[in-house]
Amino acid sequence: MAETKPSDAHHHGNLKEALVSYTLSAADNGGLSDLSVRKAARDLGVSPGAAYRHFPDKNALLRTVASLGFDALAETFEHAVPFDSSARDAKEARARFVKLALAYSDFAHRRRELWRLMFGPLGRSPSLASGRPSTYEWLGKCLIELASFGIIKDPQPEDQFFAWSAIHGLSDLQRPPTIADPPQDALVERHCAFVIAALSQESYASRAAQ
Amino acid sequence: MAETKPSDAHHHGNLKEALVSYTLSAADNGGLSDLSVRKAARDLGVSPGAAYRHFPDKNALLRTVASLGFDALAETFEHAVPFDSSARDAKEARARFVKLALAYSDFAHRRRELWRLMFGPLGRSPSLASGRPSTYEWLGKCLIELASFGIIKDPQPEDQFFAWSAIHGLSDLQRPPTIADPPQDALVERHCAFVIAALSQESYASRAAQ
DNA sequence: CCTCCAAGTAATCACTGATTACACAGCGAC
DNA sequence: GTCGCTGTGTAATCAGTGATTACTTGGAGG
To answer: CA–CA separation, A156 vs A144, rounded Å?
Structure first.
């Protein structure tokens, strides 16, 4: 049970953490595609097989890193829009929503490879560890705030998903094909305005269902 | 210049095409991740090195396949919403828009690995060959139709990009985290309604700019 | 007919993911 | 203390991979 002990234990110390942070920094330096377990071990001054004491295979390592990616994203959210605080007026509610979207889009842009890993076939572990609220919950909170000031109607689950989709899609595509290098922040703000516009309408759902 | 000749030439014949279609079918059978040039060559009854006469490296093959993916997507569009026909009334314009979104989302769902390849780091070649209109142009046409019946306002480039983002994000995420197995078509329709709602508002852009 | 060149082969390099048998430190039990 | 056990790392090895090279082949064109 010495796994949680962060000091150097006997041979290398905390290899597991070292491998993870190595991979993480590889992702942030554009070197994820040519990351190999062996190179990581080499750079960490350890034999190739050692890594397999901590991860059953390479994908397990990548999955762990993807999971940490979600933690990092939550941290970004927390910095941009503290989860425990609340907007005091309509303008601030709007601003918080935009800030959240900006944080998401920025993350996707700055940490592209990590982001791809997170939403690639190895990621997708819904909410994951760390006790932090998930993107989805964070977004939900912002929407409820917007609703509380009458900016949008009461958010249903599908509204929340729509908002997420729109922001996620924007972050994935990053730029319209027709414009080379758009002012990123303005683009995100514009999209937020669209989302708010959509969610401020009377319920299409009930109208269509009848 | 025998490269365009589709008949069997002398040794294997059209290896290039065979490699491409092998890769394509691998992608459609969930075997893209363990595709290897050697295995492809083996299954095609050819030596490993032969492939490198036709593609400088593995990524080049994958890029070609990604490009074909965009062609296939355009074909799907053409089947769902023929590019040369037009809606005759508002209802049909709406229906065409929904059909386009459904085609997009269906493609992302049914041919997931190919789709991931297309929008992954190897894809992204904007519009590509085959002379077909791109997704972006197709969408633009649908929006213009919607506008022509007064359903939305005149589509600006940013409107078009917003619509694409929303549909793309939906297709990438596929389902809200809270719902296990949503009725896919209804979900897409709902999203389309949201997009239309957003684009039917007076221009937020000009209002914000002033 | 003969030459030339696209298209394939065989052999090889460096490297990778993964498994196995082994070594060794430090801990608690006795 | 020493015995043994478990966690952690090593060394060696296997099968498979992307890629390159030198060599062969077979059909089309002069």
So the answer is: 10
pTM as predicted: 0.91
b/e per residue A128-162 (b: at least 16 CB within 10 A): beeebbbbbbbbbbbbebbbeeebbeebeebbbbb
The Cβ of residue A195 has, within 10 Å, a number of other Cβ atoms equal to: 30
Mutation test of the interface with chain B: which of A57, A104, A161, choosing the one with the most B Cβ atoms within 10 A? Answer: A161
Residue A182 and residue A174: Cα distance in Å, rounded? 9
In chain B, positions 19-78 with C-beta closer than 7 Å to nucleic chain C are 41, 45-50, 53-54
- Flag residues 24-53 of B with CB < 7 Å from strand D: 34-39, 48-49, 52
- Residue A107 to residues A168, B37, B53: CA-CA distances in angstroms? 11, 34, 40
CB distance A162 to A206 below 8 Å? no
H or E element: which one contains B76? helix B58-80
pLDDT in tens, A162-191: 999 999 999 999 888 888 888 899 999 999
**Phi/psi at A36 (nearest 5 deg)?**
-135, 150
